[in-house]
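Ticket #4471: structure export looks truncated?
Reporter: QA, pipeline team
Priority: medium

Steps to reproduce: submit the single chain below to the structure queue and open the exported record.
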Amino acid sequence: MPTVTLYPLENYSFGTKEAQPEEDPSVSARLRRLESDFEENGMRRSVEAVMVVHQHNHPHVLMLQIANSFFKLPGHYLKPDADEKEGLKEMLDYRLGSEEPHEKSKEDWVVGENISTWWRPHYESYMYPYIPAHITQPKEKKSLYIIHMPPYKVLSVPKNMKLLAVPLFELYDNSARYGAQLSAIAQLLSRFDFKYDNKHSLNKH
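Actual output as written to the record:
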């Protein structure tokens, strides 16, 4: 069973930076752009980060919330020739890294293993954790990677988003609120042996 060390939520500082508006104003616009991208470059590849911390020795997943309702993991789609792990590091630095050039810290992002892959068979919002039998050209592949968090880090959050720590008990079996992909994270993480590191807790300093 792979081991992941979790550090207390209070070890992470949360700052703000300039807003990062969504590229598309609506779901339909996003799917139209997906169709255009597919015609030009083929299947889109997306990567997202599963960043886990703990609070009271229970795992919490860091998620972005947009417009006080929509939840998503940090991540984005890749350039056609980009490496998945390196591309995810760059996206994490863009989304949550400091805007100060001397504080750029891509090496702080330790991307672990792929814990889940989702497929979009058509130009529609729903994705599946498998490729349906009749689909030969899926339109998008989304890979979720666990991130091995450092003991301490400053996370700079765009002004138009919130970064929330969602406990696994809240995610589990809660697709009505979080959707199929996010609610499945509780099961996906059950294969890891979590070690709760409290000796680095800022509360002890």
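Status: closed, not a bug. The export was complete when the record was re-opened. Leaving a note from the reviewer for reference: The chain has a mean pLDDT of 91.
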